[in-house]
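To illustrate the input format used throughout this study, we show a single complete record. The first block contains the structure-token representation of the backbone; no residue identities are included at this stage. The design step must infer an amino acid for every position from geometry alone.
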């Protein structure tokens, strides 16, 4: 569990946080694959005797990965917000449109709320799909044992 969780946490932190800078909604499409990979890798390392035996370990690895992804998303959201506020063209656009300076504050509020919901949703997707990855590994092992070798 620890190896798979750390591998998933490292990959998730780097990959999701860098993708989050570009388009936060794209992370929702890729987190299920990260979760399935972590769950499968956990079962591959631990080799549980049943699906039920692998559930706690897959949950733990999924939670490690998901928490790392959440930290990466928070850091990326802060970096994105700082970059947008400090860009001169962003201030110029706000001034040219005649919008009040409160638009930047509203951006921060909406970004924090949206990023929080996106992060919580990613957390549940990764943990749930880690269980599916565990199930895939176990199912593959039972099918391979049932088929006689030639």
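Output of the design step:
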């Amino acid at each position: 569990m620890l190896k798979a969780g750390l591998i998933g946490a490292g990959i998730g932190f780097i990959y999701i946080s860098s993708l989050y800078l570009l388009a936060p909604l794209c992370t929702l499409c890729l987190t299920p694959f990260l979760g399935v990979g972590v769950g499968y890798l956990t079962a591959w390392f631990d080799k549980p005797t049943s699906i039920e035996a692998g559930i706690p370990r897959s949950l733990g690895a999924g939670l490690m990965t998901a928490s790392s992804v959440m930290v990466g998303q928070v850091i990326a959201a802060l970096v994105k917000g700082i970059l947008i506020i400090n860009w001169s063209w962003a201030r110029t656009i706000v001034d040219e449109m005649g919008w009040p300076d409160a638009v930047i504050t509203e951006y921060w509020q909406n970004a924090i709320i949206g990023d929080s919901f996106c992060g919580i949703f990613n957390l549940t997707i990764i943990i749930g799909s880690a269980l599916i990855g565990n199930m895939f590994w176990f199912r593959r092992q039972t099918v391979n044992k049932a088929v006689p070798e030639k």
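Structural context for interpreting the output: The helical segments are 2-22, 27-46, 51-86, 88-97, 102-146. The chain is about 90% helix and 0% strand.
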